Amino acid sequence: MPDPNGFLRYDRRLPARRPVSVRISDWREVYPPAGEELVREQATRCMDCGIPFCHDGCPLGNRIPDWNDLVRTGNWDAAVESLHATNNFPEFTGRLCPAPCEAACVLGISGGQPVSIKQVEVEIADAAAARGFTPRPVPAPSGRSVAVVGSGPAGLAAAQQLARAGHVVTVYERDDAIGGLLRYGIPDFKLEKRHIDARLAQLAAEGVRFRTGVNVGVDVTAEQLRAEHDAVLLACGALQGRDTPETPGRALRGVHQAMAHLVAANRAVAGATTEEAAERRLATAVLPDGTPIDAAGKHVVIIGGGDTAADCLGVAHRQGAAGVHQLDLYPQPPQERDEARDPWPTWPWILRSYPAHEEGGERVFAAAVQEFVDDGTGQVRAVRIAEVTVEKRDGRRIVTVVPGSERELPADLVLLAIGFEGTEQQPLLAQFGVTRNPRGAVDARDDWQTDADGVFVAGDMHRGASLIVWAIAEGRAAAAAIHSYLGGVGALPAPVGPAAQALAVR
Q1: Whose CA is closest to 237, among 175, 313, 302, 316?
Q2: Where is the FAD/NAD(P)-binding domain (predicted)?
Q3: I want to staple 276 with a disulfide (CB 3.0 to 4.6 A). Which of 65, 281, 349, 364 is the partner?
Q4: CA angle 152, 494, 147 (to 5 degrees)
C-alpha cells in the first residue's frame, strides 16, 4: 500500500551535481550517487495511481509504481527483480533516457512535480551492480543459432533475451569494442564505460558470443552469416548524420559531423589510463585519418539543440575550448508545458537544460547558418548566422530570415548536430535483400521480419533515431518474434509492435 500523502510531504528533489569547476576537469559522471534516504523519500512521492500513465509514457512497460513502493519500504532485492522484469539495462536508461514516463506522471498535471522516476530507477540498478549482476541460468540448448548485427542497446537486449531462451547468439560489431553508441557515442560524463563492461560480463556468462572488428557485408558476407545461423537480427542503428551540403563553405576544414567529434573524444578517453582520464591528460582527439578534431583552445560552434549537441558541448568544455556557441533553429521554448499545445500526458515542448549548459557556452535560439566563412586557406574562421522565424505549413517547415539580422560568430571548429537521416547505406543491405524506406529506415512486417525471410530488424535501424527505451523495447520484441520463428518453447516478452508510436498529439 503506497503512502497516499507522500507527494504532499515531499517535493521533487534530485541529488546535487558535482561542482562545475570539479567536473569539467575530468570525465567522470556528473551526478554522484544519491543517498538511500533521498531515494526512498522520492519513491514515497509515487501514488500508485489507479491508472498509472507512466506505463504509457514508457514503451518498456516498466512496473514503475511497483518498484517505487518496494524502494519506499526498503525491499531493494524485490525492487531489482521488478525492474529487471521489463528492462535489461536500467543502469543505461536511468542515465540516458529523457524520461517520457515522468512527462506522463499524474503528479505532473497542471504544472505539478512528477515523481523522479529516472533517479529511483538508476539507484535500483546501481544497487544491483554493486552486488554484481548475477548471470541467469540458461535452459537446455535449443540447437538454434542467431546472429545479431550491431551491439547497441537493441542488439544487446535481443541477444540477452534469446540466450536466456536457450539459443546460441553471436553479436557482430564492426568497431573494436562492444556497445555501439553507448561505447563511443555517449561521453563518459553521462555514462562511464564500466557500466557497459559489467553488463557484458553478465551476457558472456549467459552464453552470448561477441565478435568485434567484423563489418558484416564486407568482412563477412550476408550469405555466410545466413549459412551459419538460423536467423539474423539487424540492429545497426541510425548513424547517417543529417548534413547541410547546400550551405556555402560546408567543405571547409574544421566543419564536421557531431558524431565524428564525439567518437574521437570517446576513443581518446578509452585509450587513456584511469589516472590520465581523471586528470584530463589525454591525447588529442583525432579522426580515423589522423585529422585533429579537438576543441582545445578553439572557438566552437555547435549547430543543433538536442542531446547530441549537449554532449558535444560538454566534451568541448572538458577539452578546454576557448568559447562555445550552440545554435538552435527554433525559438526558445517555454519553461513549462503549454497545455493547449502539448496536453498531459504527451511529451511537452519545453526548454531542456542539460548539465553541460551550466558549465559554460552561449545558447542562441531562432538562428540559422547562412555561411561557413573561409579564412583564406580553406579553414573555417567564422559562421555567419541570421535570426529566423519558423512555421509549419501543410507539414512543411518554412524558415524565413529576418532582414538585417546577420552577424558572424568566431569558429575554428563547427559541429553539425542536426539529427540523423536513418541507417547508413552499407553493403549488408543489398546482400540481405533489404532496402531503406524514404525515412532512411528499414521496414518490418508485423512479425519484425524484413522483406527477407529469417532476417529481422529492430531499434533505430527500424524506427529511426529515437530513445534508448525504444531501442531496448524493440530489441526485446524482436527477440520474442525470433524465438517464435525458431519454434522456441513458450513466449518471450514483447512490449511493443513494429508500428507502435510514442504518446503524441501533433
Answers
A1: 175
A2: 145-475
A3: 281
A4: 45
Longest CA pairwise span in the chain (Å): 72
Fold designation for 145-239+421-486: FAD/NAD(P)-binding domain (3.50.50)
- C-alpha cell of residue 470: 525504444
User: From CA 191, how far away is CA 186, in angstroms rounded?
Assistant: 7
CB 154 within 8 A of CB 472: yes
Asked if the model's pLDDT at residue 280 lies above 70, the reply is no
pLDDT digits 0-9 by tens, 354-399: 999 999 999 999 999 999 999 999 999 999 999 999 998 887 889 9
Q: What's the DSSP call for residue 309? A: H
Q: Is 457 helix (H, G, I), strand (E, B) or coil?
A: strand
Say which residue the cell 536513418 belongs to.
422
Residue ranges of the domains in the chain?
6-131, 145-239+421-486, 243-418
Query: Residues with Cβ < 8 Å from 46, sequence gap 6 or more?
Result: 2, 6, 7, 64, 65, 68, 69, 72, 115, 117
Examine the pLDDT at 278 and tell me if it is beyond 90.
no
Would you state the pLDDT for residue 505?
47
Nearest to 194 by CA among 28, 76, 356: 28
Closest CA to 158 of 63, 64, 223, 89: 89
- In 73-136, which residue ranges form alpha helices assigned H by DSSP? 76-84, 90-96, 100-103, 117-131
Residue 506 pLDDT > 60:
no
How far is Cα 261 from Cα 293, in angstroms, rounded to an integer? 6
Cell numbers at 414, concatenated: 563547427
- In 221-321, at which residue ranges do the beta strands (DSSP E only) sit? 231-234, 255-257, 299-303
DSSP assignment, residue 18?
Answer: P
Q: Which three cell numbers stand for residue 24?
A: 569539467
Q: Cell triple for residue 500?
A: 507502435
The amino acid at residue 302 is I
pTM of the predicted model over 0.90:
yes
| Residue 289: how many other CB atoms lie within 10 Å | 5
CA distance 372 to 377: 13
| CATH fold for domain 243-418 | FAD/NAD(P)-binding domain (3.50.50)
Rounded to an integer, the average pLDDT of 89-103 is: 96
The Cα-based distances of 88 to 39, 83, 144, 387 in angstroms read: 21, 9, 22, 45
Q: Domain 6-131: which topology?
A: Fumarate Reductase Iron-sulfur Protein; Chain B, domain 2 (1.10.1060)
Whole-number percent of the chain with pLDDT over 90: 86
Q: CB of 197 within 8 A of CB of 191? A: no
Are 350 and 339 a contacting pair, CB within 8 Å?
A: no
Nearest CA to 448 out of 463, 427, 428 is that of 463
Compute the distance between CA of residue 136 and CA of residue 153 in angstroms, rounded to an integer.
19
Residue 2 confidence (pLDDT): 77
Whether the link from the prior residue into 345 is cis, omega within 30° of 0, is: yes
- Fold equal for 6-131 and 243-418: no
